[in-house]
Design goal:
Radius of gyration: 13 Å
Strand content: 5-15%
Structural class: mainly alpha
Number of helices: 5
Strand order of the largest sheet: 1-2
Order of helices and strands: HHHHEEH
Shape: globular
């Protein structure tokens, strides 16, 4: 499957994505503003996404989307925290069960050092 075709499929799957289910864009207690919307996107879409697709979809859904570098830093923190994982060591990320539990408020996010409250 070509990159453009993959991007189109991801775009179709994400049309109904709604960012910020927990706190809202100006209230997030995460140390990086891209953590919560990235987790939400991965959780709601159910897709494996690369950073470019994450940024693209956040730009479509948010009034003030995070930059690519902010998303990359967020992905690094989420990966280290076990909330996302790389797919086959490649550029795609997927949310873990632990990440889904955090974003669905079934698990206390305060145990992560990148959560400030």
């Amino acid at each position: 499957m070509e990159s453009n075709e993959t991007d189109m499929i991801q775009e179709d799957c994400l049309r109904n994505f709604t960012a910020w289910p927990l706190y809202g864009p100006d209230m997030s207690p995460w140390r990086n503003d891209a953590i919560e919307p990235t987790l939400s996107l991965l959780d709601q879409s159910g897709l494996d996404l690369n950073p470019k697709a994450i940024v693209h979809n956040l730009e479509q859904q948010m009034q003030r989307p995070p930059s690519r570098s902010t998303v990359n830093r967020a992905l690094k923190m989420l990966l280290e925290g076990g909330l996302v994982e790389k797919v086959d060591g490649g550029p795609f990320y997927r949310i873990t069960d632990e990440g889904s539990a955090v974003i669905r408020a079934q698990q206390d996010p305060s145990k992560y050092d990148f959560y400030t409250e």
